[in-house]
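Please, structure for the following, as tokens.
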Amino acid sequence: MAVKIRLARGGAKKRPFYRIVVTDGRSPRDGRYIEKIGTYNPLLERDDPKRVILSEERARHWLGKGAKPSERVAGFLGAAGIIDTPRTPVRPKKSRPKAKAQERLEAEAKRGEAAEGAAPA
């Protein structure tokens, strides 16, 4: 059985709330799980201590048994110091602005530089 540590979504529409669960990799995202080891509330501020609540003892237990964390959960575990902080994956180039938008940004930057140089002292 491939055991995973991942997020299970709860909460209302447009009000997400996640449980951090240990589950069989074949079970559905919000389906049956083995154990709940924490919660994640993305609506709270990043520095709020209640944003991610995690049982370190249980997380270490399941990692010791070979459970594989998802990308998001690995980030939480890394921030808590349970595992090494994972490398940030390379995002696709598709998300960059297209050619015309890049030209516009460059033109605006040049205009901004010219305006700074021409400003009287």
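The radius of gyration is 22 Å. Helices lie at 56-64, 71-79, 99-118.
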